[in-house]
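F.,

This is the one I mentioned.
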């Protein structure tokens, strides 16, 4: 991206998108299915630069599928996904690889390399994508580890770490290439409330520092309120924008109310209860 884009980010684009800004990610009429089982149907979505988008929904509702489809890792059966105005499906392998460098992804369960220590895990994407001297590599890796409070854990392998440390290491690796768009798949999963809170703070601080557009999945409504600009509910094969934390809380949609109140009975579970 050009430096003017970076400057714009530094001057902080407002969280609320305006009609004048072009979307950084756009989905139109997207249907994703696996073995004829439809997970998402006719989904439209626009995400603008510097937003913090939070995806909520029941387990198995399609949040990870939506995230990976936005990131160009899954191709939809119908419709298109554009990143910076380019359709993922129309890019050559090389262009796709180039564009993917602007995109960081922290995967659910972190997907770390078990046989590599923390330093080597973060160094991996840097070695893969760019030429750096040993010194430059060390500086960048340590910057990333420091950003997630892991600078003292550089020699530890994932199995020697707590769940929270592994989640943070996944984030350190995802930000190594200074992504402009950062996807996070349930970064507070498996964390106790205190560490979940710390993680949410860390993500918000990270956002201030790196100025990226964030798309975060969470199953935890309290975290969603803490982190969100705009919230989207994923479920029922569709994606429903519920707006800000306040707007989500006062949503009139019974599915949203069931989810945020954590009720066992309601429209989201009626099919299951009936069987
Ligand atoms: N690679 C895949 N192949 C087949 N089915 C998949 C795949 N990924 C996800 N699914 C299915 O899509 C649905 C949504 O899954 P997922 O996006 O992982 O849910 P969530 O992240 O909201 O818990 C599930 O029924 C799951 O089994
Ligand atoms: Mg998931």
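My design for it:
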């Amino acid at each position: 991206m050009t430096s003017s884009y970076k400057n714009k980010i530094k001057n902080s684009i407002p969280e609320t998108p305006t009609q004048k800004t072009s979307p950084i990610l756009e989905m139109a009429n997207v249907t994703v299915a696996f073995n004829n089982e439809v997970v998402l149907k006719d989904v439209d979505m626009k995400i603008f630069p510097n937003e913090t988008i939070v995806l909520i929904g029941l387990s198995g509702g399609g949040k990870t599928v939506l995230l990976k489809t936005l990131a160009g890792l899954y191709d939809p059966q119908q419709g298109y996904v554009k990143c910076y105005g380019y359709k993922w499906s129309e890019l050559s392998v090389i262009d796709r690889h180039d564009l993917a460098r602007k995109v960081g992804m922290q995967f659910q369960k972190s997907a770390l390399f078990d046989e590599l220590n923390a330093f080597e895990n973060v160094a991996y994407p840097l070695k893969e994508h760019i030429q750096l001297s040993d010194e430059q590599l060390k500086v960048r890796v340590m910057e990333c580890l420091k950003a997630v409070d892991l600078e003292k854990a550089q020699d530890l392998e994932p199995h020697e770490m707590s769940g929270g440390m592994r989640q943070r290491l996944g984030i350190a690796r995802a930000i190594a290439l200074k992504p402009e768009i950062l996807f996070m798949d349930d970064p507070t999963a498996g964390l106790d409330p205190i560490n979940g809170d710390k993680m949410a703070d860390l993500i918000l601080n990270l956002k201030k520092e790196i100025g990226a557009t964030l798309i975060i999945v969470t199953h935890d409504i309290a975290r969603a309120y803490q982190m969100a600009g705009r919230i989207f509910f994923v479920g029922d094969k569709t994606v429903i924008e519920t707006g800000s934390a306040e707007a989500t809380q006062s949503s009139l949609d019974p599915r949203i109310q069931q989810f945020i109140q954590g009720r066992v009975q309601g429209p989201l579970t009626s099919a299951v209860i009936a069987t």
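Confidence is low (pLDDT under 50) at residues 1-16.

Talk soon.
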